[in-house]
Amino acid sequence: MTDTITQQLISICNKYPNKIAFDNGEQSCDYQTLNQKVINLAAFLDTKVNDNSPIIIYGDFELEMLVSMLAATRCGHAYIPVEIGTPKDRIENILKVAQPSAIINIGGDWEVSTELPVISLTDIKSAIETNNEFHAHPVQGDENLYIIFTSGTTGVPKGVQISNDNLQSFVDWFTNIEPIQAQQNFLLQAPFSFDLSVMSLYPSLLTGGCLRPLKKSVINNFKSLFETLPQLDLNIWVSTPSFMDICLMAPEFNADNLPSLNQFYFCGEELSQNTAKKLFEKFPDASIYNTYGPTEATVAISVVKLVPEMLSGDHRLPIGYVKSDTKVEFFDEESNSWSSEQGEITISGPSVSKGYLNNPEKTQQAFIEKDGKRVYRTGDAGSMNSDQMLLYNGRIDFQVKWHGYRIELEDIDAHLNQVSLVNQAIVVPKYQKNSLKVQNLIAFVVADKNDFASEFELTKAIKSELAQGVMDYMIPQRIVYVDAIPQTPNGKLDRKGLMNEVNTA
């Protein structure tokens, strides 16, 4: 039988006992110590939590957060990471859906009333330091290892169940994209409640690497961010493209100041040509990978190493070759037909989730059976080129009808981000009052430095350049200039938030 994720981690701890596994700038821990802390806490949890229900772990990038997640899985529980600062009503919804057995409060500001046992940071710290013997009975096979809650269309979050086997499929593939050597320093930018963090977390721990988190307080302080990054001695960068756009604004973000950084992996949202071009200019010798995948298929299922030849023209960047144990097909809902060439991207294979926790209705809508296999409908439009490279053609739910034309908002984004005067941009529809009819298109733009005397002149120049790549009806009627485009808590551009803003004003 294949070793579980837990068993593999124990082997790594024994292989690299004195190597640093985690360092957040305030707390650091080697593998031998990490393993003992996990054993101690797992023994404690085993006496506190009797059933196999998931455990909610509330915190940030503390060492105790990491130990708690690993300890939960070692004693047979899935963990549900909840980031500090999560709105109270969202936490209450998660509790209703998840029906957890306990809550571990690392963050300290837990304010939600519950009859469940809430284990304090003080108790966790005491348990971690109390040496125990413990016979592990870890999560294995199709049992849930972690559950990530994503936003639901009805406002109630959905808990994506990821099993030991789902995660194993991802890790086996990802760690061999460019074989990862031991003791690489991984950037941990995404919160544990966002599955992009898994791209750093397990590939690092299962190859003897070191996790180097960036707290939000650092990310949100431009000066602090660029003072901190060189101190991390990073080798492998994992982030959203939006976070990279922030970093690229700083002149000091380059290979001279970050000489050990040689691999970049992007996921979670679309990577633009503009971002990739700027990154190549600053890190000409680095490997830059574009990946794609939904939470429901365990982080990512395709990857491509970008080369300069891909950065010409106005086309979208490819999202990669599909991993060998996974099958991608395309579904056309209108004709109820399947294709190997284009349509809604669907995914089947060992990394596909069993569905949403305690939500059979939403599971039935998104996960279907085909040829005896579970297939996830992504809601993404895509196609496959002649080289069997997967291409992304936008979100189906980001399509709007405007003057009789069906327009993909992300298509306009892609072209607008190619305009020489634009650093970052996103387009949203303004609807007629009490109607789903689009009144106009509004672009939010972070402009590059320029010499225009007025926003009117800048707007005229941007629209003129944009017109060279898109049809007239795709040019936004209004451009709003901002210093930064709002992001979701997971570091993605907040299109839905902006849509709410322009349609409630």
Brief overview, please?
The protein is 29% helix and 27% strand. By secondary structure, it is of the alpha/beta class.
Fold and architecture overview:
The structure is a single chain. The chain has 505 residues and is an alpha/beta fold. The chain has three domains: 7-310, ANL, N-terminal domain (Rossmann fold), CATH 3.40.50; 321-394, Luciferase, domain 3; 403-504, GMP Synthetase, Chain A, domain 3 (2-Layer Sandwich). The protein is built from 15 helices and 26 strands. The strands form eight sheets. Strands 16, 17, 18, 19, 20 and 21 form a six-stranded antiparallel sheet that branches. It has a five-stranded mixed sheet with strand order 11-12-13-14-15. A four-stranded parallel sheet has the order 4-3-5-6. Strand 25 (438-447), helix 14 and strand 26 form a beta-alpha-beta unit. Helix 2 packs across helix 3 (63-74). It is globular and about 70 Å long. The mean pLDDT is 93.
Q: What is the domain total for the residues?
A: 3
Number of strands: 26
| Helicity level | 25-40%
- CATH class term of the largest domain: Alpha Beta
CATH topology tier name of the largest domain = Rossmann fold
CATH architecture of the largest domain: 3-Layer(aba) Sandwich
| Mean model confidence by pLDDT | 93
The percentage of residues in β strands lies in: 25-35%
Topology at a glance:
Layout: H1 5-15, E1 20-23, E2 28-30, H2 31-48, E3 55-59, H3 63-74, E4 79-83, H4 88-98, E5 102-105, E6 118-120, H5 121-128, E7 144-150, E8 158-163, H6 164-174, E9 185-188, H7 197-205, E10 210-213, H8 216-219, H9 222-228, E11 236-239, H10 241-248, E12 263-266, H11 273-282, E13 287-292, E14 302-305, E15 321-322, E16 327-332, E17 337-339, E18 342-348, H12 360-366, E19 367-370, E20 373-384, E21 390-395, E22 399-402, E23 405-408, H13 409-416, E24 422-431, E25 438-447, H14 455-466, E26 478-481, H15 495-504
Parallel strand pairs: 3-4, 3-5, 5-6, 9-10, 11-12, 12-13, 25-26
Antiparallel strand pairs: 1-2, 7-8, 13-14, 14-15, 16-17, 16-18, 18-20, 19-20, 20-21, 22-23, 24-25
